[in-house]
Write a structure and sequence with these properties.
single chain; 142 residues; alpha/beta; Rossmann fold; five-stranded parallel sheet; 5 strands; globular
Length: 142
């Protein structure tokens, strides 16, 4: 009997990044791709997901805004943000409000990304978001 893999939703408007994320996680997750926030919200309405990873910089809506919307509707979902910038005020506000479980600074290699996701899942399991002072110091820089 095979055990179903948890579902992972990856959101990025760049096809190359979606390809990279899918390669990194397809062994451990059933990976569903979305190229926009609207598409991501649609996918979330169709199936149960364990985790969402989204890019910060996308057209129409930022990754932080998407994760805030997702957090309101799906509070048990683990949320990870990818960003090319380390000190974006919007990211810090999301961290302070507990809207994300981890964020990763791009460019990132696959091992650091896997470690960041594992850490986010563990943090979520303990009922903690990145707003914990100890957790804030563990954000992943690559």
């Amino acid at each position: 009997m095979t055990v179903a893999k948890p579902r992972l939703l990856i959101v990025d408007d760049e096809p190359d990044m979606l390809d990279f994320l899918e390669r990194v996680f397809r062994m451990d997750y059933e990976v569903i791709r979305a190229s926009s926030a609207e598409e991501a919200l649609n996918e979330l309405g169709k199936a149960k997901f364990a985790l969402v990873i989204t890019d910060q910089k996308m057209p129409q809506i930022t990754g932080v805004e998407l994760l805030e919307r997702i957090g309101e509707r799906y509070p048990f979902l683990v949320k990870v943000l990818l960003s090319g910038f380390t000190e974006v005020p919007e990211i810090q506000r999301a961290v302070d409000r507990g809207g994300i479980h981890n964020y990763v600074v791009k460019p990132v290699d696959s091992e650091k990304l896997r470690a960041a996701v594992t850490e986010a899942i563990e943090r979520h399991g303990r009922g903690r978001a990145l707003s914990d002072s100890a957790a804030r110091r563990t954000k992943v820089d690559s």
